Amino acid sequence: MAEHDTGGPAVAPGGRIALGVAYRGARYHGWQSQPDGRTVQDVLERALGQFAATPVSTLCAGRTDAGVHAFNQVVHFDAPVDRDEFSWVRGTNRYLPDDVAVQWCRLVDARFHARNSAHGRRYRFVILEAPVRPAIEAGACGWVFRPLDGDAMRAAATHLIGEHDFSSFRAAGCQALTPVKTMRSIGVERRGAYWRIEFDASAFLHHMVRNIVGCLVAVGSGRQRPEWMAEVLAARSRDAAAPTFPPDGLYFVGPYYDPAFAIPEHTPAMDWLV
Where are the catalytic residues (predicted)? Predict the structure, then answer.
């Protein structure tokens, strides 16, 4: 099912609304609406419709895959009713499941578009390095049992910075019009037993982050040299890269926009998973 398009100006009666939504993706078949109704977009639109007492269609900043979490997924819609910002947050959350919650609301200019107005997007991948699989944090982090070399992973990541054709990291079913994206930064750091890998890019292809993480882990564990990442990138073939890393531990940190739109870039959960 195609995502709803709430596109260009011509708004009324409650104006154009932007929301920041956080969710645990484990129970959902990704963001985008599906016939079975088990997606984040489906549960959000049902909750908005119950609160507004009329159907509400949304458009998001980035369509996350099944099992992927989000700190600050930004959506917009043209409100069919007039409500204050505080009411959209509390009223919608009343009808949402425990693992999905609206974090903030803004009345925005009719020119604002959650996807098209974004200057870039950020993702975070959290990986536990331990001889035993996670339990308390199961589903909330990735897992490796082999020691990882942070310097090697950072060296490999440098080959991906800049504007490139990322076809080697693109899923077969990716619907993006072009594989060319600009990777602005990749940060790799360890905190205790956990690795945190931060990505900032103009946009991402389907499975792009998970495929890059699979390659970084191959380098970090010593199975590949850091220079191998440049070879994978140059091949422009998915067959050249490592297997796709599981979605556990992948978080959509959120998009960022022109400051004039006053869209929040921080939610409380970001302080929990530091």
Answer: 65 (nucleophile)
* pLDDT of res. 1: 40
Under-50 pLDDT residues of the chain: 1-2
Are 34 and 2 contacting, i.e. CB atoms less than 8 angstroms apart?
Answer: no
Annotated binding-site residue numbers for substrate: 123
Annotated binding-site positions: 123
- Name the burial class of residue 2, with classes exposed (0-12), middle (13-18) and buried (19+) by CB atoms within 10 angstroms of its CB: exposed
* DSSP β-ladder status, 59-60 and 16-23: unpaired
Nearest to 56 by CA among 37, 80, 90: 80
Looking at the structure of the chain, the number of domains it has is: 2
Active site residue 99: no
**What are the Cα distances from residue 168, in Å, to 60, 112, 208?**
26, 33, 9
CB atoms under 10 Å from CB of 81, counted, come to: 13
Angle between helical axes of 40-52 and 85-93 (0-180°, round to 10): 120
The answer on 54 and 164 residing in a single domain is no
**What residues contact residue 135 under an 8 Å CB cut-off, 6+ apart?**
none
- What dihedral angle (degrees, nearest 10) is formed by the CA atoms of 149, 154, 127, 164? -140
CATH number (domain holding residue 71): 3.30.70.580
Domain check: are 109 and 126 in the same one? no
- Please, are residues 73 and 100 in contact by the beta-carbon 8 Å criterion? no
pLDDT (0 to 100) of residue 117: 97
Q: From the candidates 65, 78, 151, 200, which is the catalytic residue? A: 65
Tokens read off for 230: 């440049």
What's the whole-model pTM score? 0.93
What is the predicted pLDDT for the residue at 37? 85
How far apart CA 138 and CA 133 sit, in angstroms, is 8
